[in-house]
Each structure stands twice: as C-alpha cells, then as structure tokens.
Write a structure and sequence with these properties.
The chain has 276 residues and is an alpha/beta fold. It is built from 9 helices and 13 strands. The longest helix is centred in the first third of the chain and has 15 residues. The chain folds into 2 domains: 50 residues, Spermidine Synthase, Chain: A, domain 2 (Roll); 220 residues, Rossmann fold (3-Layer(aba) Sandwich). The mean pLDDT is 96. The termini are far apart. α6 packs across α7. It is globular, with a radius of gyration of 17 Å. The strands form 3 sheets. It has a 7-stranded mixed β-sheet, with helices on both faces. The protein has a 4-stranded antiparallel β-sheet with strand order 3-4-5-6, covered by helices on one side. The chain binds spermidine (SPD). The site of spermidine has 12 residues, from β6 and α2.
Amino acid sequence: MIWFTEYWTENVGLTVKATEVKKIKSKYQEILILETPEFGKMLVIDGLIQTTERDEYIYHEMLVHPGLLAHPNPERVLIIGGGDGGSVREALKHPSVKEVHLCEIDEEVIIAAEKYLPTISEKLRDPKVKIFIEDGNAFLEEKKNYYDVIFLDSSDPVGASEVLFSKEFYEKVKASLKKDGIMVAQTESPILQEEYFKKAISQIKKVFRNVGVYLAFVPTYPSGMWSFTIASDYIDVVNTKRPEKVKELKTKYFCDSIYDCLFSLPKFVQDIINKS
Ligand code: SPD
C-alpha cells in the first residue's frame, strides 16, 4: 500500500491511497496504473492524474458531446491525445460519426489502457476507429481540410504537451478542419491553473472567430473545476440551439439541462476570459 500525491501547486495536492501500483516506463514518460479504493483504477502520467474509473465519464462526456452536437452532421472526428480511449467511446455514441482517428504519441498509454482500463478503452478496436501512433503536431501536417470536429484530449501543458497549447498548433488544427469544422480543447483549471487557462483562451481567440468556454466538475483534476474551450470560424458555437438528439445520448453527467446552460460561467471566469 502507498499514498500517492499529485501536487496541484507547490502548496496543495490530492493524496489517494493505492493498494497496487503498476509502473511502465515508456520512451516518453512514466505511466502508473494505481488501484485505489476510492476512485478505482487510476491512470497517472509523469505524476499527473489523467483519468480514473470512477470519474472519467465526466471529463470524457463533457469534452466530446458539446462539440458533436454543435455540428450539424459530424462524420469525421480526430482526437489528439486521449490514448485511454474515453473520448473515442463517447464520440462513437453519435450515429452520424463514420470515422474516428485517434492520434496518440505514446503507444504504451493505449496498451496500458487496454490491459487495465477496459471500460474506458472498450471502443478502441471498433471498426470506425483508426489509431495513429504519432506526434499530433506532425500528424496535422498530413491532413488538411478533412475533419468535422477535432478534440484536443491532451495532458497538461508541460513538457511534450506544451506545444499543444500554442497559437501555431491551433492554426494547424484549424487547417485540418473543414470550413464549418469545430475544435474542442481541454483548457485546464481556471482556479489553480489560471495562467495556463488564460494562455490557451487568448491563443484560441486569435485563431478562431467563435469561441466559447464551459466548465465541468472533475474531482480528481486540480481544484475539481475544469475548463473546455470550443471554437469554430463558421459555426456560432455559443448560440447553437439544443438539438433533439441530446436526449438520445446515453450519458451519466452531460444532459439537456447542462447543454442549455453550458456557457453560463461564474463571474471570475468570465472576467479572466474577457481579459484574455
Ligand atoms: N490534469 C490532467 C488533465 C488531463 C486531461 N486529459 C486527460 C486525458 C483523459 N482522456
């Protein structure tokens, strides 16, 4: 038994008891699978909690469904990062989706997820899914004007993931989207990672004409308050009317009432966005 702590800042962290620890050293990072009494199996990369069996649905549903519902007919989807498969699973809940490309730099994340997190990775081998073990930045060079929706299911902007939060990268994402395409990115915690949050929003605003920010409450992420940013040049993502199909989705967190007030934000978050 060990106690594992993710340090959220120099002064605060989240500590969980783990009864079993599997350690995988990949070419890129250290991957841990922790067996925890409270959150079930937990995927940790370089000391940062990526997902847990108990609360993963919150993040994955909230990353994926708003973007796919805002698009009138999403067929081609790209997920950058997200090797655990949770976002793939959610994307496949939309009947219009014909192909899901997953671009994950580290194959070991996929291997670990398939071995230890079967409920999250269960759809990775679906015939609609194609997996590319590649750097997202390089991958986007190969596919222009192709996707309806692109999801940035990245880790925090440190080390290899830092580039995924830059203006140059968002420009590449835009070039890989069709004219009416939509990007949705995880954009960190407005409370404990205000600088990361601000930077992401300000760079996204420079690249896309319509930008909306929304929140979800993910207990195992820093502060629990997590942000997502949805952006498009052509689609007015913030003012899209709720489609009937929201009710048909099998979800545990995302639902019609959340969709209706998706962009209602606490005042301090609005202030940060307006200043970004
Ligand atoms: N602080 C952790 C942020 C992680 C966001 N991505 C998680 C990937 C889960 N599919």
